[in-house]
């Protein structure tokens, strides 16, 4: 995990100091080293303060801040290809890097043992075999990668930049421009710090953004990585029509996914809520990693904390609990808004317990954590799915599930990447392995969601848990949504009222403006139409309270 930043001047001016300012904004994303590439030179240091900026100048500059997970401390980026034609930065994890490296070592000089370095040499091979066509080289490179990635690539021959994002969008890149330059970064804050204002843009999942060299900038060229099989094109023909067949296919892909994400680790953390998703991840991780620690956060006495303790005791899991008071939640809200770079009430409410769990893990020296994100979208976990099946049929229900999966990048993944990186922790998502997704989409949806049952879903998911030895009362437990189970939703309502925000304070114009805002999250976009509107929609006075805070926190 890392922080990527870069600038292309429109006027040919030296932008190295601005890239340094961007890296300073991403210290938590890369506490283990920084590097800058410009004018065919790369300089590296343990910290931004240690970089000798007088030694390197350029109008087209890449910067990188590194969190060392794979390859130890000797793996600072950017990486340069052996022939000097390409410079590459990578944020993410490549799970098949050892196999790729074995193939490349015969004709490439590796200087680190990181997973990231295989990308630059693989890209170099495809670049040279495609007559220097950068986009074609990128397409062929990412088609071979099993993992998640945000890439920044500079073609040293013609000065073109390419920004690339994996097909799920598990890792993000943002970009924007002003009169002086184009800039990009792993978060929005570095862009704000150098004068890039909203609206910024994001590199979309499965896309490359091509930035022309200094002096030839007229507009961005955005190209889809067409050789990548997009999620929209994944095979959804039903192959698994019985519970046994579905569970067996799911078991194979989940175990393989977990093995990829836990290999070579002696200690790992779990974002734990007591729901079956995090329970299943923790149960499997314990068989693969010598030390597994689960972390739960919520209001003292909340259901998630109580159930997490009960489940951890039954399963003999090591559970650490961060119990928050209402005053502590109030103090956290500005920091949360700053970290996740938005103030949508649903996002803030879910972010707080995740932030608290990850912060505690950081304090205890955890470097990598696993999360259960994606299981609800893949196996029909939301209560409104069954109601959609009853009203419009299973095909319609599955189309909603795929839509939710495709929107995870901005509704969940970007938020949680920023939260984990605020504590210099790498977050991994076992349920979002491509092979697992392919298997899940081939399961008859009737096996997961039964018509008329608006309480339980994810039945294949739960049956796998049973087959692995998890007790039925845990596998089939009905869990509240994170913001409710953790007690945060009710707490923020009380906090808003305490600060003078209630139904009587809301102007009509504000209500009209709320209706025009983007709906974030499945529940806000359409779930409330099939469920209780009160449960799934934040009250306007709560959003108004968060808006008042964000005016001071967000630029």
Entry summary:
With 555 residues, the chain is an alpha+beta fold. The chain has 24 helices and 18 strands.
Explained architecture:
With about 550 residues, this protein is an alpha+beta fold. It folds into 2 domains: about 220 residues, Glutamine Phosphoribosylpyrophosphate, subunit 1, domain 1, CATH 3.60.20.10; about 300 residues, 3-Layer(aba) Sandwich (Rossmann fold), CATH 3.40.50.620. About 45% of the residues lie in helices and about 15% in strands. The strands form 3 sheets. It has a 7-stranded antiparallel β-sheet, with helices on one face. Helix 2 packs across helix 3 and helix 9 packs across helix 24. The chain is globular and about 60 Å long. The two termini are about 25 Å apart. About 0% of the residues have low confidence.
Radius of gyration, in Å, reads 23 Å
Mean pLDDT: 90
Instruction: Provide the low-confidence segments as ranges.
Output: 71-75
How many helices in DSSP terms?
24
CATH architecture of the largest domain: 3-Layer(aba) Sandwich
Percent of residues in β-strands: 15-25%
User: What's the N-to-C terminus distance?
Assistant: 25 Å
Question: How much helix is in the residues?
Answer: 40-55%
- Strand line-up across the major sheet: 3-2-4-1-10-9-11
């Amino acid at each position: 995990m890392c922080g990527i930043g870069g600038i292309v001047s429109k006027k040919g001016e030296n932008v190295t100091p601005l890239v340094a300012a961007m890296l300073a904004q991403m210290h938590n994303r890369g506490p283990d080293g920084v590097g800058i590439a410009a004018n065919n030179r790369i300089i590296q240091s343990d910290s931004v303060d240690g970089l000798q900026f007088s030694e390197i100048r350029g109008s087209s500059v890449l910067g990188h801040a590194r969190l060392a997970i794979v390859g130890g401390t000797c793996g600072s980026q950017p990486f340069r290809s052996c022939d000097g034609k390409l410079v590459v930065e990578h944020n993410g994890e490549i799970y098949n890097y050892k196999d790729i490296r074995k193939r490349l070592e015969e004709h490439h000089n590796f200087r680190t043992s990181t997973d990231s370095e295989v990308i630059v040499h693989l890209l170099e091979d495809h670049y040279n075999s495609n007559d220097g066509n950068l986009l074609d080289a990128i397409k062929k490179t990412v088609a071979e990668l099993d993992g998640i990635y945000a890439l920044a690539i500079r073609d040293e021959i013609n000065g073109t930049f390419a920004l690339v994002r994996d097909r799920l969008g598990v890792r993000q890149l943002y970009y924007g421009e002003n009169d002086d330059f184009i800039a990009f970064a792993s978060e929005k804050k570095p862009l704000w710090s150098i004068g890039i204002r909203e609206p910024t843009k994001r590199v979309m999942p499965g896309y490359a953004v091509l930035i022309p060299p200094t002096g030839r900038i007229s507009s961005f060229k955005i190209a889809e990585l067409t050789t990548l099989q997009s999620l929209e094109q994944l095979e959804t023909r039903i192959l698994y029509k019985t519970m046994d067949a579905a569970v067996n296919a799911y078991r194979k892909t989940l175990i393989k996914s977990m093995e990829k994400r836990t290999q070579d680790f002696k200690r790992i953390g779990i974002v734990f809520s007591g729901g079956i998703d995090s329970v299943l991840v923790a149960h499997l991780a314990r068989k693969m990693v010598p030390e597994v620690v689960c972390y739960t956060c919520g209001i003292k006495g909340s259901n998630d904390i109580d159930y997490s303790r009960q489940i951890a005791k039954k399963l003999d899991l090591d559970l650490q609990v961060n119990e928050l008071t209402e005053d502590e939640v109030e103090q956290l809200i500005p920091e949360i808004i700053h970290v996740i770079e938005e103030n949508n009430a649903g996002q803030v409410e879910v972010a707080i317990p995740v932030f608290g769990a990850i912060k505690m893990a950081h304090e205890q020296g955890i470097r990598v954590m696993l999360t259960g994100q994606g299981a609800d979208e893949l196996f029909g976990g939301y209560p409104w799915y069954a109601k959609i099946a009853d009203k419009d049929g299973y095909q319609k229900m599955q189309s909603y599930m795929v839509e939710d999966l495709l929107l995870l990048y901005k509704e969940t993944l970007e938020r949680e990447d920023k939260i984990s990186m605020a504590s210099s922790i790498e977050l991994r998502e076992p349920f979002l392995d491509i092979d697992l997704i392919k298997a899940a989409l081939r399961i008859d949806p009737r096996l997961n969601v039964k018509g008329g049952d608006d309480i339980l879903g994810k039945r294949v998911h739960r049956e796998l848990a049973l087959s692995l030895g998890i007790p039925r009362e845990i596998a089939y437990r009905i869990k509240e949504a994170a913001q409710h189970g953790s007690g945060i939703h009710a707490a923020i309502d009380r906090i808003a009222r305490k600060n003078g925000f209630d139904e009587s304070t809301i102007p009509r114009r504000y209500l009209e403006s709320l209706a025009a805002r983007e709906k974030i999250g499945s529940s806000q976009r359409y779930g409330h139409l099939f469920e209780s509107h009160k449960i799934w929609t934040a009250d306007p006075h709560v959003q108004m309270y968060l808006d008042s805070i964000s005016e001071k926190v967000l630029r």
